[in-house]
Amino acid sequence: MLAVALALWHGPARAEITEVIARVKPSVVIVGTWRASDSPRFRMRGTGFVVGDGNLAVTAAHVVAGPLDGASDNPSELSVMLPVRAAGADFKRRRAVVLEVDLLHDLALLRFEGDAAPPLSIRDSVLVREGQSVAFMGFPIGGMLGFSAVTHRGMISSITQSVLPAQTARLLNEAVVRGLRTGAFDLFQLDATAYPGNSGSPLFDPVQGDLLGVLSMALIKGTRESALSQPSGISYAIPSRFVAELIERARGK
């Protein structure tokens, strides 16, 4: 009887997360650059997700920072790779442009061409509480494991007042994190491991699928390489209210 009761108790939770993952996955995109003469032609920079009218995507600002690769007469194209369900293809490339950037909160809003994709619903992050269960989806470690969206689960371990450092690198060591404690805006600290490639991943409610934040950086020990060999299990996300503000600012222009 106990085994049956446990099975019944756990069943709905598993069903909910599987349904939510299936609903969120079509909205999660790869952000990178494309050039016909490159090998490979597409080079990933990070993760993003669809919002708004279905032709907008949000990612971390440092993902699209800096010049595009290539000479001035043959530059790479900023692109997003949208998941598709078609024989012989997993993703479809769409050219993109940067509409708006929020450097303070490490956010960027892109517009991509072509048909609209399903957008994520944005929840007011003011309602998020410490201890709340969360999930995030993205493309960890770039294309080393193939371009397959991966979901991680965790919880909001702390809501801390922080500011982001000026450097574009978002893999932090302990010394830098100590400097974040006197910051000016809320930052979600997660008890979950994020890897290179997860920057720009959507943080979402594992029950409803609503957007709660954007993965921005991971706490590491020592070097960047140790993010793979010795992950700390601590990551940070920018609350979703700053995403909503970014979209509204772009609409006002």
Which helices and strands appear, and what pairs or packs with what?
Elements: H1 2-24, E1 28-34, E2 42-51, E3 56-60, E4 77-86, E5 89-102, E6 107-112, E7 133-138, E8 150-162, E9 171-172, H2 174-178, E10 185-190, E11 202-204, E12 211-219, H3 226-229, E13 235-239, H4 241-251
Parallel strand pairs: 9-12
Antiparallel strand pairs: 1-2, 1-4, 2-3, 3-6, 4-5, 5-6, 7-8, 7-11, 8-10, 10-13, 11-12, 12-13
Summarize the structure in words:
By secondary structure, this protein is of the alpha+beta class. It has 2 domains: 25-112, Trypsin-like serine proteases (Thrombin, subunit H, Beta Barrel), CATH 2.40.10.10; 125-247, Beta Barrel (Thrombin, subunit H), CATH 2.40.10. It has helices at 2-24, 174-178, 226-229, 241-251; strands at 28-34, 42-51, 56-60, 77-86, 89-102, 107-112, 133-138, 150-162, 171-172, 185-190, 202-204, 211-219, 235-239. The strands form 2 sheets. It has a 6-stranded antiparallel β-barrel with strand order 1-2-3-6-5-4. A 6-stranded antiparallel beta barrel has the order 7-8-10-13-12-11. The model is unreliable at 2-12, 164-171 and 218-229 (pLDDT under 50).
